[in-house]
Amino acid sequence: MTDYTASEIMTVVAARALRDDDVCFVGIGAPSGAANLARLTHAPNVTLIYESGTIGTRPNVLPLSIGDGELCETARTTVSVPEMFRYWLQGGRITLGFLGGAQIDRFGNLNTTVIGDYDRPKVRLPGGGGAPEIATHCGRVLIIMAQSERSFVERLDFVTSLGHGEGGEHRRQMGLHTQGPTQVFTDLCVMEPDPESRELVVTALHPGVTREAVTERTGWPARFAEALSETPAPSAHELATLRDLQERTRRAHGEAA
Amino acid sequence: MIRHTDLASAIEANVADGDTLALEGFTHLIPFAAGHEIIRQGRRRLTLIRMTPDLIYDQMIGMGCADKLVFSWGGNPGVGSLHRFRDAVENRWPTPLDVEEHSHAALANAYDAGAAGLPCAILRGYLGSDLAKVNGNIRSVTCPFTGEVLSAVPALRPDVAIVHAQRADREGNVLIEGIVGVQKEAVLAAKRAIVTVEEVVDDLTDVHPNATFLPFWTVTAIALVPGGAHPSYAHGYYSRDNAHYKAWDAISRDRDSFLAWMKDNVLSKRPEDFATQAGRAA
Predict the structure, then answer these.
(1) B219: enclosing H helix or E strand
(2) Nearest chain A residue to B233, by CA
């Protein structure tokens, strides 16, 4: 089984970054797919938390929303939303946050608010939701986003959620002791912040992807690590597990029609 | 004081033009039937508060009920945009919409502060975010003990909170189970509270001692509306109609198809119709 889509390898590679002992605050969409794939493969004990209040949830199908009944029914416990954000997130109990966005810059800052001017936006996006505080309170943050020059931009129209700010020690100077974004997973590559400048550097290319392709689809001058590696292709087990999960999900969400 | 009543009377008696409303329910138990009744009664100039505006506020905004929205995430979960909300912000249709935008953490704290009778909520929030630059209600306070600068937002004090719950008893006590969101906080923060329920029972017996429970004296009006949360869901009664959430994308994308849908499915319907709709989704 060597055929896979760009979206599948993005999800599989992101899933590999979850650890069995992580407590992960999961966003809806691609992060939820990756987090549950990790739970169904190498990280069976990972604790998944959704901002609707469900702690330690083990959904059999991927939720469409952040609060599908499936999440509550399979959770160890469900708490109120104020408790979720105060005790569990702000209280520092979450080791890993998982975010996406409409725009990202070279320091991993994210925009999910507007394209264009805030008061007269060209595109009004959904907004921050839980992300502004997930970005600052989780031990580390993983970002998963399909890559294009329109989404990987030189300058964000709006900073919704902090990555490494202006780079360097910016987070620490703001009084933050969490790591911020440690990896960005795209459909082309993996990026990681430079240890000093915190600028995102391409550390691995997915099989068959060229440097030129990454450069073309990055809105800033892309930098590549000296020890640039190739992402190991998805295994048959990873792909089969992901596809089963997506097929179960497709059937479950279609049934209500 | 009214307690058990029908939905139309509850809205008529408690929701006025210009009021500040919070229809809460975090994905679960969204009070759609109540929102539709407000649309049918033609309320105007409302300030609508909701963490996740969802389809219900998309509909109320598109029908011209609101002139201000206080929110933290305005999308169709797992699907994409709320097109009526976008049209109001991007093109001022059908009327201009003032927005006060927060994060989830801040709004959850602001409801909690409202319930607690405090003037503001304090959180470690918005660090490095531009939201504070565009929302004058995001300010800061300095901790008198440590000197740490923290974010402060005003407490939420809606005129009316509206929530949907599984059960009420004859006396008017209300039980909420499953994902409980911010409903308890919203009800306790508000001046008046309307609750729609799936079922009215003689007594709420065998309730877990730690259940989310609203005593009758915290609730202004209760209306029995089976299926009243459809297309969201009621844990233990029916599941989320995810197919409808997906279908809403196409219905709401275009003004004419939106208005036609509202005419057929809201303006010419009644609260009793929700039972069938939710039954279909179960």
Answers:
(1) none
(2) A69
Question: What CATH number is associated with residue A45?
Answer: 3.40.1080.10
Going from the first residue of chain A to its last (257 residues), give the mean pLDDT of each consecutive group of 10, the final group possibly shorter. Answer: 88 98 91 96 97 95 89 95 98 96 97 96 96 98 96 98 98 97 98 98 98 98 97 97 95 66
List chain A residues with CB under 8 Å of B240.
64-65, 68-69, 256
Q: Which residues from chain B sit within 8 angstroms of residue A64, using beta carbons?
A: 77-79, 240, 242, 245-246
Q: Does the residue A177 lie in any domain? A: yes
Q: What's the rounded Cα separation, in Å, for the pair A66 and B186?
A: 20
Residues 11-70, chain B: which have Cβ within 8 Å of A?
A: 26-28, 51-52
Nearest of A91, A61, A85, A57 to residue A71 by alpha carbon: A57
What is the predicted pLDDT for the residue at B247?
97
Number of domains in chain A: 1
pLDDT of residue B280: 60
Predicted model pTM: 0.96
* Residue among B104, B111, B181 whose CB faces A130 most closely: B104
Q: What is the pLDDT of residues B229-248, one digit of tens each?
A: 999 999 999 999 999 999 99
Share of chain B above pLDDT 70, in %: 98
CATH classification for the domain delimited by B3-102+157-275, as one of 3.30.70.100, 3.20.20.70, 3.40.1080.10, 3.10.20.740: 3.40.1080.10
Of B72, B180, B233, the CB nearest to A128: B72
Q: Is the pLDDT of residue B151 over 70?
A: yes
Q: Is the pLDDT of residue B210 over 60?
A: yes
For CA atoms A96, A98, A101, A104, the dihedral sign is positive
Given a contact cutoff of 8 angstroms between Cβ atoms, the answer to whether B46 and B67 are in contact is yes
The pLDDT, as a whole number, for residue A87 is 98
Name, in order, each residue with C-beta under 8 angstroms of A62's C-beta and a sequence gap of 6 or more.
A32, A33, A36, A245, A246, A249
| Residue A154 within a domain | yes
Mean pLDDT of chain B: 96
Identify whether A51 is a catalytic site residue.
Answer: yes
Q: Containing domain of residue A178, as a range?
A: 6-256
Question: Residue A1: inside a domain, yes or no?
Answer: no
- Residues B118-145: what's their mean pLDDT? 98
User: Per-domain residue ranges for chain B?
Assistant: 3-102+157-275, 117-154
Residue with tokens 């969201």: B232
Q: In this structure, what DSSP letter does residue A234 have?
A: P
